[in-house]
Amino acid sequence: MERIQKLHEFLKASPNDNFLKHALALEYIKINEPLKARVLFEEILTQNPGYIGSYYHLAKLLEQTGEKENAITWYEKGMTEAKKAGDNHAYSELQNAYEDLVY
Prior knowledge:
Elements: H1 2-13, H2 18-30, H3 34-47, H4 53-64, H5 68-85, H6 88-102
Helix pairs in contact: 1-2, 2-3, 3-4, 4-5, 4-6, 5-6
């Protein structure tokens, strides 16, 4: 909980810092608070679709909560953004996770 409190403090000073939001979402996943994590990931990706790292984690979270169709959608969006950014590594990770889920 100490890390979560620290991240909240940092976010008060920098409320639009996607790195901090992403880190906080990952902490929420660790303590089994998937809804809080999902809200943060969706906020990041709505405000900044180019924040590619959050697509994988959001889609994986949706997979784990049984929302297969939503997960597929977010993997697809992530692959599109990764391709736009020329981030082949992220594209490959998203594509592998997508294929594991779909096929």
